[in-house]
């Protein structure tokens, strides 16, 4: 059960960074400019419709393990007044990939691999999340996604997953989420809630990632 919950927490970390869609409203966190590496290519800005926030997406030509990129973000985000989040084990600042055999994420020493890190502000109100991804072994590029959004409680998520396990609903719930996850990894929570208005688990999950449950 521990491995399943650990995997679900990391799934949430990755999926949250892709919960983006275009929205015609004032840019959230307009006072904060998300750092972009000077060699970034194909840069795009996206807004979170839910939970409210924004993200920068681009790619950088960099040798594995992209040390210059991780060091760049450590310095730049620290200068914004954010500190590494010690409460989020899903963003453990290691290169990993998912193992079907282990049913968990394992550390990797080569591509393909994914890296995650989370920083929080002093008030624990907001978080900056970084996702780096080498999609295949012959990729010369690391794909960067960095976003800011409300802080959510990892402990609340763990408790939620434990409750799912106890109720025997763990797999069914994450299969439901997968149903609303598009090819580009965008999770359409508005559609999921509209089509499943009586699903208490979905409502609770949305409350957690929106930062409503600390």
Which CATH class of the domain at 29-151 applies here? Alpha Beta
The backbone outline, from C-alpha atoms, is: globular
Question: Any idea what the CATH architecture of the domain at 29-151 is?
Answer: 3-Layer(aba) Sandwich
Q: Report on the biggest sheet.
A: 8 strands, antiparallel
* Helical proportion, percent range: 25-40%
CA radius of gyration is 17 Å
Secondary-structure element pattern, one letter each: HEEHEEEEEEHHHH
Euclidean distance between termini CA atoms: 23 Å
pLDDT < 50 runs, ≥5 residues:
1-11, 17-23
Our count of helices gives 6
CATH fold description of the domain at 29-151? Protein Transport Mog1p, Chain A
Q: Main attributes?
A:
single chain; 214 residues; alpha+beta; Protein Transport Mog1p, Chain A; 8 strands
Could you outline the blueprint of secondary structure elements for this entry?
Layout: H1 2-16, E1 41-48, E2 53-61, H2 67-79, E3 83-84, E4 95-99, E5 104-107, E6 113-120, E7 126-134, E8 141-150, H3 154-167, H4 170-179, H5 189-195, H6 200-209
Antiparallel strand pairs: 1-2, 2-8, 3-6, 4-5, 4-6, 6-7, 7-8
Helix pairs in contact: 1-3, 3-6
């Amino acid at each position: 059960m521990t491995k399943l919950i650990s995997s679900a927490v990391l799934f949430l970390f990755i999926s949250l960074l892709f919960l983006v869609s275009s929205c015609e409203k004032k840019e959230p966190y307009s006072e904060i400019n998300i750092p972009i590496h000077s060699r970034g290519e194909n840069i795009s800005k996206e807004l979170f419709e839910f939970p409210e926030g924004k993200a920068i997406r681009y790619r950088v030509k960099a040798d594995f393990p992209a040390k210059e990129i991780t060091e760049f973000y450590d310095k730049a985000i620290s200068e914004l007044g954010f500190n590494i989040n010690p409460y989020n084990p899903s963003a453990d600042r290691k290169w990993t990939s998912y193992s079907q055999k282990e049913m968990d994420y394992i550390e990797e020493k080569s591509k393909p691999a994914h890296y995650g890190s989370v920083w929080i502000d002093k008030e624990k109100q907001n978080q900056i999340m970084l996702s780096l991804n080498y999609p295949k072994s012959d990729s010369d590029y690391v794909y960067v996604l960095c976003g800011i959004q409300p802080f959510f409680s990892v402990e609340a998520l763990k408790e939620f997953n434990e409750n799912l396990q106890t109720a025997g609903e763990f797999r069914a719930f994450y299969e439901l989420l997968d149903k609303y996850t598009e090819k580009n990894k965008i999770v359409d929570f508005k559609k999921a809630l509209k089509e499943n208005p009586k699903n208490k688990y979905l409502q609770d999950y949305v409350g957690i990632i929106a930062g409503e449950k600390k």
